[in-house]
Amino acid sequence: MFELQAHHAWQHLDGLTKPSRSLGQLEGLACRLCVIQQTLEPRTTPRRLVLFAGDHGVVASGVSAWPSEVTGLMIQTIVDGKAASTVFARQFQAETIVVNVGTLHGFGNIAGSGTIAYREARVRAGTRNLDHEPALTVEEFEQALAVGREEARAAAQSGHRVVLAGEMGIGNTTPSACLAMLLGNVPLHEAVGPGAGADAAAIERKRAIVERAVARSRSVGPSQPRQAIAGVAGLEIAAMAGFYMESHRLNLTILLDGYVATAAALIAEHLQPGTAGSMLAAHLSAEPGHRRALEALNLKPWLEWQLRLGEGTGALLLLPLLDAAAAMTTQMATLASLQAAGGAS
Amino acid sequence: MFELQAHHAWQHLDGLTKPSRSLGQLEGLACRLCVIQQTLEPRTTPRRLVLFAGDHGVVASGVSAWPSEVTGLMIQTIVDGKAASTVFARQFQAETIVVNVGTLHGFGNIAGSGTIAYREARVRAGTRNLDHEPALTVEEFEQALAVGREEARAAAQSGHRVVLAGEMGIGNTTPSACLAMLLGNVPLHEAVGPGAGADAAAIERKRAIVERAVARSRSVGPSQPRQAIAGVAGLEIAAMAGFYMESHRLNLTILLDGYVATAAALIAEHLQPGTAGSMLAAHLSAEPGHRRALEALNLKPWLEWQLRLGEGTGALLLLPLLDAAAAMTTQMATLASLQAAGGAS
Lengths: 345, 345
Known about the structure:
The structure is a homodimer. Chain A is of the alpha/beta class. Chain A has one domain: Rossmann fold (3-Layer(aba) Sandwich). Helix content of chain A is 48%, strand content 12%. The first copy, chain A, has 14 helices and seven strands. In chain A, strands 3-2-1-4-5-6-7 form a seven-stranded parallel sheet, with helices on both faces. The longest helix of chain A has 21 residues, at 200-220. Chain A is globular. At the A-B interface, helix 2, helix 3, helix 4, helix 13 and helix 14 of A face helix 2, helix 3, helix 4, helix 13 and helix 14 of B.
């Protein structure tokens, strides 16, 4: 079977009416998109953002600047269309679904004032505190993975071509740091950063907690990878991992967000090697461990804008540039046609 | 009169439902936009791209990898909607007008197959060769400035809020290098780069030519700034300068493109100090002199994607991110409303 490789894409891009490589990184982005979609006519629409929400027991150990209640409040803000993610999703025409995989309290059916869908699929009321015990059992972890898988299938069935996952979960940079260490070999001092605004004392606390939790997961042994991962995961993180795995299997193009999303990508790549081959890393987060975690996935970030909000915002901001890359690839005249028309030498 | 300053914008942005400054550079962009437009409700639509085209006598001295005929061929490609700039302009809803300020040959009325307007306002058939004599007389320079001014007035009259200028002119990084030296104090070895693909020998030739031309302009003396500038300018560059000056006067927000556009901005700021206060520098070009030229204007570039195509492409690529910055500023919920709704501490 013919495989479209990077040099095929470059051959096409270098034949368009512009000095060779004069669109810099946009051309690199276009090349990567062509290789992922295995075509010189890549498509970036329709696209869907799935926002996975969950709470984290470790918040009780003082790792976050915000209380867990904020997760629920933000879900309402998202559904109302007034959170950063939903503002950007509207701007860039990404259909949005919020999936509650496990906040402390459920919402039943909230319609909100917006047109953003909400689905309640809570596996449990937040994770256990990974400071004291494994955050999730293997069974709970698998259930959360399955929630994500279903969302990927639903996106594919609705004809979406590009998918984005975002997360909302106060405290979730702590499990992400554990996963970056466990699966991406990111060293402790880089893996643990300020997240959504922890101060120096909280970062020290967070570092000690992460170190202990990772040691516990490592002691589980390599024969039990799911148990080791589940012990330091989050419900929304596991769901994102399942979403990525199934999206890859269904040939959807995945736009990866920041640090928490990348922790989920590390799980996905570990459980289903090759998954990262469908991914574009939208941006390099301000969270210090992100660069190494992306390197572990062999991914290059495109925007370096010091974003650290989550909710899929970084992935959303790359979306119009991905559109431009696709439009450049498919809509520009070729140098050959220009020469035929008038004789550039 | 109340003046909206950066700290007013930050106060607003820090009160939105996100951790403070967690959207990184996008918040910086939003702050700058608010200050330029003097409002916390900035607007980025409608917007117009004006592409100024002109030829350069200095091409005869071998500074470019492309012959002057390409300027005309590219105008046709642009009007047909198949050049990079027009592909992006369509993608990001920027109305486009091509203004021919002085290519070697005119076109009369070309309708093309696209919906892009074309206006012929040729001041002369290309500039003189600045390697041997002043490129333009003061009168020609003033006429080209006036063409740009008219375009700014037309854009304002049509209700446009954001304006972009782009250029098409084989050989125009040579006058741009002269202007960067003359008006931005950029040193020779940085001012002269490869442009649209000159090789090492051509860069050496270009450097010697630029050095001589700048020395000639400097010898004109500071009492004759317009004569000094005209001697190393281009018709499309002068028109862009006039476009920027009048756009600033009419309170339009200016998205600045790459090196050639910045050379025009240096003229505009020199002739009408304060003009750069209406500008956002969309990107840092791969052309080595660009960083210093922007510094001379006290402008910070937003995208660093190694673009070097021109035609306004860099400015166009920032446009959706500027949209996102404006949407964030005006459409997100405030933390105060979130606290009222449910009690984040």
